[in-house]
Amino acid sequence: MTGANDPQPLLAPLSADEWGDDEYAAFGALLGLPGEKVPRAGSGHAADPLKFDIIGLLARHPKMARRFLTFNGWLLQRGELPLRLRELAVLRVAHTRRSAFFWGEHVKVAAEGGVPDDDIALLANGNDGFTGVDGLVLDATDELLSHGRVGEDSWQRLAEELGTHQAMELIFVVGTYAMLAMAFDTWRLAPPADSASLPDAPDSPTNK
User: Fold this and answer.
1) Is the Cβ–Cβ distance between 140 and 175 less than 8 Å?
2) Is residue 38 a contact partner of residue 47, using CB atoms and an 8 Å limit?
3) What is the structure's pLDDT at 1?
4) CB 3.0-4.6 Å disulfide test: which of 101, 107, 109, 123 passes with 191?
5) pLDDT digit string (tens) for 148-164?
6) Spatial contact of 122 and 88, defined as CB atoms under 8 Å apart
7) What is the tens place of the pLDDT at every residue in 66-102?
8) Measured distance CA(183)–CA(208) in Å, rounded
9) Measuring CA to CA, how many Å separate 72 from each of 27, 43, 119, 164, 175?
């Protein structure tokens, strides 16, 4: 939610009259639909592109968006990494990178996918409350964000606990959402007004 004194976006989502065949095809790549089957901008449909600012921004480069959304849609809808582990990692990325937009969006995704509110709140305080594979995934996510890689021991533990496919996907999930956080923070995309607020960082003065 933006206020009167908030900085203005550097890039705005497409308006209704800016959507064309290429843009609909890009959104369709995420939805698994051909472009002509995508609801029209301004239609009021549940999948109306104007309801998704992130899509409206990506679609300003429709050829890139179409290819990226094909991959991102696969990670979200058809990947092998369980939703809980994926969303714990995405929320950790959002919290660490201070992305209010992705924190708000993925609190909703996580909650709808069955991640308890208490677990979501616990993420803001580090990893001490998480054990087993949850803790392993969060520790690995922290390594990726801090060092750009996981160490040999961490990789071996991930592969043993998750299997090679899921361990590989985790790295791509963290990398994808770190990249998206950079992009949308650059463009100053504000979260929707009803989004969950980004918690303070553990070392924030308000937490001391």
Assistant:
1) no
2) yes
3) 45
4) 101
5) 999 999 999 999 999 99
6) no
7) 999 999 999 999 999 999 999 999 999 999 999 999 9
8) 31
9) 11, 25, 25, 19, 11
